[in-house]
Amino acid sequence: MFLTKKEQEMCDGEYGETIRKSMDILVALGDIYGASKLVDITSAQVSGVSYKTIGDAGLEYLEDLAQDDSGKATINASLNPPGTDLDNWEELGFPEYFAIKQNKIVDAYANLGIAKTCTCTPYLVGNVPRFRDHVSWSESSAVAYVNSVIGARTNREGGPAALAAAIVGKTPLYGFHLEQNRKANLVVNVSTELKGADFGALGYIIGKAVGSGVPYFKLQNTPNNNDLKTLGAALASSGSVALYHVENVTPEFDIAGEADVEDLMFIGEKEINETRQKLTTTDKTPDLICLGCPHASLEEIKQVATIVQGKTIKNKLWICTSVSVKATADRMGYTQIIESAGGNVVCDTCMVVAPIEEMGFEVIGVNSAKAANYVPSMCGLDVVYNDVENLIQFE
Ligand SMILES: C[C@@](O)(CCOP(=O)(O)O)CC(=O)O
Ligand code: SF4
């Protein structure tokens, strides 16, 4: 990979150890994937934050990287969810040993200049690249959203690579950064109207079929941004999709080359309903309904507030979101309505990266196909997959 004189000096340690180590990662990646050079990025989204997923080794790596204070992110860079609500972990019943380690991890990232936004929906809270910007994002649903709905350009980066890119302000130019790799290779004709959890079911089916390919959807009805985040999260979890197109909806659909695609799939009501059922792993009633995978938008919190207003919820209810979105939900009175009904708006964390398996829960109710896919494997718990209005039960 070609390096400028300054980039070579960065590799040689002339700008300090943090930058040298970060350049090591970027150059190794660039060489493996045949990148021609590094390209400037405007934004980074860094995953690998939960103590549950990175453990003590991850914490040590971060503290070591920040040691000589020589390199910090100077572009817009934000963090993925950690394993606790950073402020209210005690009230919500998170284990203390975990919360202490978790705060150290988040502080180590902040020392490297990564903002403690702690969300997988950074595009709702100020980390919003522009169309065709080069970026380095790592949480897979956020990658799918920023590539597909915003039309910025990123590969599915690992956490350490996105961190290195944030610190250097550059990423290797290959893969989805190049226009020719953003073409569709599967056309999906959907013959039924979709709503709510149907979008997750569609994403789950197509992610499995397309793997790391680029699906192009022809839908009967127009999805909103919440539907697109649900769809992308599911595509990126059952497969390793980084980019999808929706006809007449996403910004690059007309340059996706749909007319030249040979592989076609037809999806109807039957396939969607079968998948919805398949994602549920038990007949038992959930003891925790956990919404917000990916992290909830203000409209999604409002929807829940409308459903539970003036009622008492039987099971526990968490809606996971960022601290920024919750601040507005507080002002709008949604949080108060949800808390009066017995639920919680939980900040920072989520049902997958929190240690919920250590917190006495057995069956989790979710409206996200990604969560339904990961909770059994990453937390060892059963899931019920349905729309919000069917999951919440009242006294
Ligand atoms: C499951 C996931 O959404 C969250 C866990 O990621 P991490 O702990 O930030 O590495 C990661 C992903 O899908 O990229
Ligand atoms: S598992 Fe879901 S809520 Fe958790 S970080 Fe990933 S997309 Fe976000």
TrEMBL record:
GO molecular function term, any single one: lyase activity
EC assignment: 4.2.1.182
Subunit structure: Heterodimer composed of a large subunit (PMDh-L) and a small subunit (PMDh-S).
Protein name: Phosphomevalonate dehydratase large subunit
UniProt superkingdom: Archaea
Gene Ontology biological process terms in this record: isoprenoid biosynthetic process
Keyword Disulfide bond: no
Family per record: Belongs to the AcnX type II large subunit family.
Its job: Component of a hydro-lyase that catalyzes the dehydration of mevalonate 5-phosphate (MVA5P) to form trans-anhydromevalonate 5-phosphate (tAHMP). Involved in the archaeal mevalonate (MVA) pathway, which provides fundamental precursors for isoprenoid biosynthesis, such as isopentenyl diphosphate (IPP) and dimethylallyl diphosphate (DMAPP).
Annotated catalysed reactions: (R)-5-phosphomevalonate = (2E)-3-methyl-5-phosphooxypent-2-enoate + H2O
Pathway field: Isoprenoid biosynthesis; isopentenyl diphosphate biosynthesis via mevalonate pathway
Keywords: Iron, Isoprene biosynthesis, Lyase
Phosphomevalonate dehydratase large subunit-like domain sequence ranges: 1-393
